[in-house]
């Protein structure tokens, strides 16, 4: 079968690499892919908002299954469009994607189905938001509704910081804002929890711990993710039961009550406070870089899982996992998440020797004339699977040092809360 993957990040390179292992796949096409996918698949540059053009290419290239990596095409309704054209697709519908597309949609679902989450208020003007601040305790969290590439969240220590955040959002920093969320600050430990669902049943799809801040010790600005490890150190049977019963199952029921269901990966961003899970946010896709740490631990053929999902037969598949842990370090362009240079060559990449449990997934790279160049903020993901995370991290750092890319930087402390010196 020919398969198409939508997206261009490290997550999509990992999806491509693990799908490629299946002997049921003939050819993979990536729309648009990156420097890493180009050695496994055909990369096709395309404007992902041009659904008609995508449809033409899918028919022309005889692609029988589309796997969507990032949130934007999901929120824009790519799944509904493809299904209407009788194309099999792995990913949630436009309505189900509101779980990520609108924080207010998710909060209202939490309220209706008593899903534990931070207390919140929704406000539709600067004035009403600021009046509410007078009743609040600090710190608190101000959030823009809608997709903001992880940037629409402000953790505010003071009244003044909160006021500035409210004004920035209503003044259009993340597009035309009609409503904002102000919520209670939760103090605990975060955990990324994944399930896969075919709309009929669901299965757990691993846990991970992301590191969102740009600097070591979780300091500095928020990013897309500087590194992760899997499984989360919080993973435990009792907690898992609570997450499934109190958060995941009522959410899937809520979607059913809206006459839709969830087909795809669902990523719950949780805060664990005194052993109780609270929902911070949903993402309607795999995490990036969490995906790059979870897939190397998967024993079962990824294609068979996804194929079973689109045919509503997930129930019949048994998911098996390797015992080993895995850790990912993201190599970024100096300056990220602010301004950084692009088109810088990654000269030594071809000389790096990878052993069996080592992976390099490309994110912001491009190949030109057989040479690899950076073209984004997060450039490469170094992933190592190992019995222990300390060895995994040391080995990932050795690999990055072998690359010796003068324009790059990375966090050397991924997993610092669990890896003892
Ligand atoms: P979000 O985009 O909603 O995941 O928020 C980005 C990050 O902000 C999260 O990963 C958390 O680290 C933090 N955050 C969001 N909401 C809260 C909250 N209510 N309490 C504490 N931290 C939060
Ligand atoms: N790593 C965070 C995300 O994928 O949203």
Protein described:
There is one protein chain. With 421 residues, the chain is of the alpha+beta class. It has 4 domains: 2-91, Rossmann fold, CATH 3.40.50.20; 119-184, ATP-grasp fold, A domain (Dna Ligase, domain 1), CATH 3.30.1490; 189-316, ATP-grasp fold, B domain (D-amino Acid Aminotransferase, Chain A, domain 1, 2-Layer Sandwich), CATH 3.30.470; 325-420, Alpha-Beta Complex (Glycinamide Ribonucleotide Synthetase, Chain A, domain 4). It is built from 12 helices and 22 strands. The strands form 5 sheets. Strands 10, 11, 14, 15, 16, 17, 18, 21 and 22 form a 9-stranded antiparallel β-sheet that branches. A 5-stranded parallel β-sheet has the order 3-2-1-4-5, sandwiched between helices. Strand 10 (189-198) and strand 11 (202-210) form a beta hairpin. Helix 6 (103-113) packs across helix 9. The longest helix is centred in the middle third of the chain and has 21 residues, at 237-257. The protein is globular. The mean pLDDT is 95. Residues 210, 224-225, 283, 287-288, 290 line the site of glycine. Glycine (GLY) binds at residues 210, 224-225, 283, 287-288, 290.
In short:
By secondary structure, the chain is an alpha+beta fold. 28% of the residues lie in helices and 29% in strands. It starts with a strand and ends in a 12-residue tail after the last strand.
Topology at a glance:
Layout: E1 2-7, H1 10-20, E2 27-32, E3 42-43, H2 51-60, E4 63-68, H3 71-75, H4 78-84, E5 88-90, H5 98-101, H6 103-113, E6 120-123, H7 126-133, E7 140-144, E8 153-156, H8 159-170, E9 180-184, E10 189-198, E11 202-210, E12 213-215, E13 219-222, E14 227-230, H9 237-257, E15 263-273, E16 276-283, H10 290-294, H11 302-310, E17 325-333, E18 358-362, E19 365-368, E20 371-374, E21 378-386, H12 389-403, E22 408-409
Parallel strand pairs: 1-2, 1-4, 2-3, 4-5
Antiparallel strand pairs: 6-9, 7-8, 7-9, 10-11, 10-15, 11-14, 12-13, 14-17, 15-16, 17-21, 17-22, 18-21, 19-20
Helix pairs in contact: 6-9, 7-8
Adenosine monophosphate binds at residues 118, 141, 150, 153, 155, 183, 185-186, 190, 212, 269, 280-281.
């Amino acid at each position: 079968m020919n398969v198409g993957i939508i997206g261009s990040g490290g997550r999509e390179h990992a999806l491509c690499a693990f799908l490629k292992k299946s002997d049921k796949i003939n050819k993979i096409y990536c729309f648009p892919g990156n420097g890493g996918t180009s050695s496994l698949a055909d990369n096709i540059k395309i404007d992902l908002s041009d659904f008609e053009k995508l449809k033409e290419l899918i028919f022309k290239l005889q692609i029988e299954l589309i796997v969507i990596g990032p949130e934007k095409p999901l929120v824009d309704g790519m799944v509904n469009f493809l299904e209407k054209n009788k194309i099999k697709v792995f990913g949630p519908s436009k309505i189900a994607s509101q779980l990520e597309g609108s924080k207010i949609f998710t909060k209202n679902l939490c309220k209706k189905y008593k899903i534990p989450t931070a207390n919140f208020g929704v406000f539709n003007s600067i004035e009403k938001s600021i009046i509410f601040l007078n009743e609040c305790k600090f710190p608190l969290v101000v959030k823009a509704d809608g997709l903001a590439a992880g940037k629409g969240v402000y953790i505010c220590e003071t009244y003044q910081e909160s006021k500035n955040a409210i004004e920035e959002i209503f003044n259009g920093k993340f597009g035309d804002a009609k409503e904002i969320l102000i919520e209670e600050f939760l103090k605990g430990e975060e955990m990324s929890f994944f399930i896969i669902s075919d709309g009929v049943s669901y299965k757990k799809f691993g846990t991970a711990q992301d590191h969102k801040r740009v600097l070591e010790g979780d300091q500095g600005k928020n990013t897309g993710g500087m590194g992760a490890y899997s499984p989360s150190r919080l993973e435990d049977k009792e907690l898992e039961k609570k997450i499934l019963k109190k958060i995941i199952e009522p959410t899937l029921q809520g979607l059913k009550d809206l006459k839709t269901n969830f087909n795809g990966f669902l990523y719950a961003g949780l805060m664990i406070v005194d052993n109780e899970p609270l929902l911070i946010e949903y993402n309607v896709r795999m995490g990036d870089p969490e995906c790059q740490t979870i897939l190397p631990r998967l024993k079962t053929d990824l294609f068979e899982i996804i194929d079973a999902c689109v045919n509503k037969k997930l129930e019949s598949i048994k998911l098996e996992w390797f015992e080993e842990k895995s850790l990912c370090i993201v190599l970024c362009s100096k300056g990220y998440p602010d301004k950084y240079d692009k088109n810088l060559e990654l000269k030594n990449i071809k000389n790096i020797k990878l052993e069996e449990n080592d992976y390099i997934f490309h994110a912001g790279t491009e190949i030109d004339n057989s040479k690899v160049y950076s073209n984004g903020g997060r450039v490469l993901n170094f992933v190592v699977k190992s019995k222990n995370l300390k060895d995994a991290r040391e080995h990932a750092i050795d690999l990055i040092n072998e690359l010796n890319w003068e324009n790059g930087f990375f966090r050397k402390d991924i997993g610092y809360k669990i890896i003892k010196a």
